Description:
The protein is mostly helical. The protein has 14 helices and no strands. It has helices spanning 2-7, 15-23, 29-63, 75-89, 95-117, 126-150, 154-161, 170-189, 191-199, 201-206, 211-233, 239-251, 255-279, 288-306.
Amino acid sequence: MFGFAIIFGAAETSIVDVWNAIFTFQNNDSINIIREIRLPREVAAIMVGSALAISGAIMQGMTRNPLADPGLLGLTSGANAALAVTLAFLPATNYLGITFACFVGSALGAILVFSIGAAKKGGFSPLRIVLAGAAVSAFLYAIADGIGIYFKISKDVSMWTSGGLIGTSWSQLQVIAPFVIAGVIVSLLLSRQLTILSLNEEVAVGLGQRIFLVKTILFLVVILLTGASVALVGNMAFVGLMVPHIVRAIVGTDYRFIIPMSAILGAILMLLADTIGRTINIPYETPVAAIIAIMGLPFFLLIVRKGGKIFQ
């Protein structure tokens, strides 16, 4: 999929051009397009797809909620609102500062959702969490839009949050890549604990797991991965919802296999969506977020209809 994404686009390029762009120092228009535009863009697609898919898998495992997804639980909307606040009040902030603002926003959004979802006696329930997520997300998106209109930065906020990979550069990847790689590594190291946690908390305690510590670390990983993704490409719902369900149908319920497979399948899905977005209406570009939403909304409705057991 990465090969297809690099080769196909508005400008005609060949496999030879791709080879020369990656492995030689040659220069021509086709090679420069691949080297400076397509390569960073598709590497970003791999990182974002993997990060969001792993985030969704972790959240579904931790909450035992089949509808859990970073976009549905306030993380992306929180990052979006934090980004708008930063652009309005600290316009000179560099890319690293904006990335940290997205991390903080993701954490606050998720905390709001879980606080509201657990406020009623009986604790969490999948339905209550999803409803709280929808309400908090709408509220935070309204804040971001209001700030954009009031401070006349709507265009800047929209460019950041429209859910696309246009303009992704190597310098942006240098900032984001360490966070994504660190999050992926930690999630792989804790995959066995997540498997036990996804079954039953009492079982996890009986096996000597430090539940609070594991949950805290995994929650921080989700914030890291989601915040980095929003800082890089903006809002991207449904990736974290779809991919773990499909992966569980392939590898089962062991998170030692779900996490790495989610990373691979998430990357493939994002590369596919980006390639479709770039080629479906050449020379114009369809936003990747729209392609993902077209795929994800029917999938979400199907999961709701099946009670979260679509592939089980």
